[in-house]
Amino acid sequence: MHKMSKMFVLAVIATAGISTSYAYTGGPDKPGATEIPVKTDADNAGLKLPAGFGALKAIDGLGHTRHIAVTSSGEIYVKLDRPKDGKGILFLQDTNGDGKIDKQTGFGNYGGTGIYVKGDYLYASSNTEVFRYKLDAKQHVINTETPEKIITGLIDRHQHESKSLTLDNNGNIYVNIGAYSNSCQVKDRTKGSMGMKPCPVLDSAAGIWQFKADKANQTYGDGVHYATGLRNVVGLDWNQQQNQLFVMQHGRDQLHDLFPDLYTEKQSADLPAECMYAVKKGSDCGWPYIYYDPEKHKKMLAPEYGGDGVKTAGESAEDPVVAFPAHMAPNGLLFYTGKQFPEKYRNGAFIAFHGSWNRSPEDQAGYFVVFVPFRDGKPSGKWEVFADGFAGPGPVKSPGQALHRPCGLAQGPDGSLYVSDDVKGTVYRIVYKAK
Amino acid sequence: MKKILMAGMMVVMALSAAAQVKKQAPAGTTASIARGKVLYKQICATCHQADATGVPRMNPPLIKTKYVLGDKTKLIKVLLLGLNEDVEIEGEYYSNPMPSQATLKDEEIADVLTFVRNSFGNKAPAITPGQVKAVRATIK
């Protein structure tokens, strides 16, 4: 009944929202200038946004679209989780400028998550390798069949296998290699099993590796073990203002399942924080020995290593820059450098939270895009939900109920924010509408 | 009109009686399902979810799949050995490893599997502790 009335209200809003709204997206350096107006969807693509913002579905139904990259002319590359008809990368074009994708091609016979455009190259990852494709002046791939394999032989053991990537301005590429483990127990995800010490996962995973962006066939020995103690990073971005790598860690799961005498179900739903870290070469963020408690604001000794929910540890481990509620699964991070959005958003961080699966019996959480204002490379205010409603109108008890789950983020040349969804393969475009 | 109503009620009564008979038939199974339900919540529900719909891309659903309803030996082995390979169900892939549940007793494995095979819209014969014991013997 409650659900029905909500649906009715939504229908009314959708019908009422026919009044056409346009976004005057301007050029890269012309805020508010009227170029090609992009028409937002009457229902803002089903999203709840701050006043002044609108959204459209650029395209729908692509499949499991993970990360997304937008070129200097606003064309889109998306990475599919698994190749569809032999195509793991889709190239999406809007040939008439109405904001809706009307031409779609594909290439790259491998699934994966990472995709990034930097300079004259498109970079894309499978779960074990990274490739790059030379781009022409329009940032179109010159030869889709012969990418350069720049990194190979990375670990994929069916858990935290996404090889997300970003690049700096000095020819380096940063690749996440997630831990093939939850908390480095002798027996993974097994009740009462204690942690291995030292944790052997850390030598080849649970960290960020730095490689050369232009060198072929690199593997572990050729790269720099840039940051460690990061359980799994799916969202990461190079902060241009700070000239520094920022990452979002997926915190550990199942404190109650594995140590029921130490943690209640409620504590397990609320612990640990999903953390943003500013990392530098040599950073250790503490996994698996510690986790971060967002209420106590402290690094806690993990129960696998003798922790009891009270003992703190990890004095030498990095402190998070921002601590978010547990289990929301940050899959995309983007520092906004565009000029389309109001001043407050400049240089701040957008984070796509894929949404939780292990907060039961509580409702699941996340399934939204949040914003954190930044000044001089540091958060200058509290985080806030920026775009919500991806999952649908009702509460999510189980992630299978979510209609869409935000996964990747990208910024268009006009300052539009793009969000990819890996349930149905919707590409959202969020714009600021001139007052 | 009244006659139709009466006839309808009789059909409903007959059906519910039939359903009760059906339920009563395997008395041991009913008790096994009840014990399995408790175990499912403790051990399985976090990953496979309370409604057994699983987690997209990660943990497979347990609803009307060949893994759950099919070969008993294979299913028992998944619990005893765990599983670390991609599972494909109706064109979707699930990649997260399943930890071994070998520390559970034969009866507990039988109970939880019997519960899963007879819940969430599933309907399949019970699994007995003897069957679990036999499979365990082949992998020791």
TrEMBL record, chain B:
It holds the Pfam family Cytochrom_C. Residues 1-19 form the signal peptide. PROSITE patterns: CYTC. Residues 31-120 form the Cytochrome c domain. Keywords: Heme, Iron, Metal-binding, Signal. It comes from the Bacteria. One of its GO terms (molecular function) is heme binding. InterPro entries: Cyt_c-like_dom (IPR009056), Cyt_c-like_dom_sf (IPR036909), Cytochrome_c-type_DH (IPR051459). This is C-type cytochrome. It comes from Chitinophaga oryziterrae.
